[in-house]
UniProtKB/TrEMBL annotation:
PANTHER family: RIBONUCLEASE H2 SUBUNIT A, RIBONUCLEASE HII. This is Ribonuclease HII. SUPFAM superfamilies: Ribonuclease H-like. Coiled coil: none annotated. GO terms for molecular function: manganese ion binding; RNA binding; RNA-DNA hybrid ribonuclease activity. NCBIfam families: PRK00015.1-3 (NF000595).
Length: 198
């Protein structure tokens, strides 16, 4: 059972990211402020919700949230600043888009870089505990999945429409066969080690 708020008398924004562990593509983040009476029977941590139900939840959240923001940091910047900093930056950019200023931020995970002196609470597995973090996880995940499906049109051999850039067996085999693209994260050392005999 998801809780609505950590501090019911405050305006809270839930924040989460998607794609931190992927081999290819950007990292996405979302920030969501929900109304007091927000509810949906399918709402949960995005990893616990199947793709069909995530696609049902996305428009419902966007239509009923008091405010939301979605942002991404591409793979080139991830390679420059590292994935953790990129995840925090994406969250900050998502928070920048909120039309309502929150009193507090609920962050999924155990670390965060403070944002505009707004108090924050880091909550491990928070996307399975609070509605606003779960909603943020759904938005970040669905927007990133849509992005990766579009990239799949350009590079179908990596099967991004299915694996979304994660290091699945089919993705790793495609990297071995075709190498990496401009969308792959070079800092992740994903190229196979090939020993050449001379």
């Amino acid at each position: 059972m998801l809780s609505s708020f950590l501090y019911p008398d405050e305006i809270e924004a839930g924040c989460d990211e998607a794609g931190r562990g992927c081999y290819a593509g950007p990292v996405f983040a979302a920030a969501v402020i929900l109304p007091v009476d927000f509810d949906h029977p399918l709402l949960n941590d995005s990893k616990q919700v199947n793709e069909k139900n995530r696609d049902i939840l996305r428009p419902y959240i966007e239509e009923n949230a008091l405010a939301y923001g979605i942002a991404m940091i591409n793979n080139e910047e991830i390679d420059q600043i590292n994935i953790l900093k990129a995840s925090f930056k994406a969250m900050h950019l998502a928070l920048d888009q909120l039309k309502l200023r929150p009193d507090r931020l609920l962050i999924d995970g155990n670390r965060f870089v403070p944002y505009q002196e707004i108090p924050h609470n880091c909550i491990i597995k928070g996307d399975g505990k609070y509605k606003n973090i779960a909603a943020a996880s759904i938005l970040a995940k669905t927007h990133r999945d849509s992005y990766m499906k579009n990239l799949d049109i350009e590079f179908p051999m990596y099967n991004w429409k299915k694996n979304k850039g994660y290091g699945t067996l089919d993705h790793r085999k495609a990297i071995e066969q075709f190498g990496i693209t401009s969308y792959h994260r070079k800092s992740f050392n994903i190229l196979p080690i090939q020993t050449k005999l001379f």
